Amino acid sequence: MRLAILSDIHSNLEALRATLAAIATRSVDRLVCLGDIVGYNTSADECVDLLREFDPVCVAGNHDRATTGQITTEGFSHTAARAIAWTRARVSADSLRFMAGLPLKASVDDQLVIVHGALHPDVGCELVRLDTDERRQLSFHALRAHPSGARICAFGHTHHLGVFELREGVMRSLTGDEIVLRDDAYYLINPGTVGQPRTADLRATYLVLDTARRVLTAHHVGYVAEVAFAKTRRAGLLPRSSYVPAAIRNPLKRGVRACGAYDFLKRTGW
Ligand SMILES: [Fe+2]
């Protein structure tokens, strides 16, 4: 079975359309979505409707659950919380019903387990970011004990493409656009983000997992990001830092992080 795995669409219709068009050329059997369909950008209903046309296996992300009111926006950045309030005031009852019905964890043919954030906590797993070795170890531990017997867990939430392997007790990060998965190892795989890039590379990303051949491929999709982000800007949903040119913004962010003031700036909308 060939599975196309995508995550963190974040109401970016232009990115989702381009990604689904690219996936359509790759003879995929099933679409898998790791949540955060909405948030940050403006096309919530359009993204939910388009995604549903493909009947994906889908889990809920923290932005989906905050929009439906299943969790609060406590701990969200100012920019993220503002977009949740904006979306909640406009999204259709049908989209809300769909998102509210999404599970937090699911498995696909006992071969793949899917979550938005992490596999390991029983409560609040959609909020946990697998961005440290310690947390990845905890999710690997949960994967090894998973009743499905699956050896691969797909997660999103960090918005960063990544593949992590656990074999003979050793964990390592794998790179490359085509990876052959071993039978004797466990994997945590992250397709990155369709619609809310957090690097200078604005392209959407997704993974294709061929469960029979045990091959994982990473794909990048270019689209006209300016169209999506112009709508976001007009709605007043971009962070203030986006008005600073990237050449200045990125070193500035690194400096602020080094000073330990980054979380404060995020909370206040920068
Ligand atoms: Fe996200």
Descriptive overview:
This protein is of the alpha/beta class and about 270 residues long. The chain has two domains: about 1-220, 4-Layer Sandwich (Purple Acid Phosphatase, chain A, domain 2); about 240-270, no CATH class. It is built from nine helices and twelve strands. The chain has a six-stranded mixed β-sheet. A six-stranded mixed β-sheet has the order 4-5-6-10-7-8, covered by helices on one side. Helix 2 links the parallel strand 2 (about 30-35) and strand 3. Helix 3 packs across helix 4 and helix 3 packs across helix 5. The mean pLDDT is about 95. Bound molecules: fe (ii) ion. Fe (ii) ion binds near residues 8, 61, 63 and 157.
Could you list some keywords that capture this structure?
single chain; 270 residues; alpha/beta; Purple Acid Phosphatase, chain A, domain 2; 2 domains; six-stranded mixed sheet; 9 helices; 32% helix; globular; binds fe (ii) ion
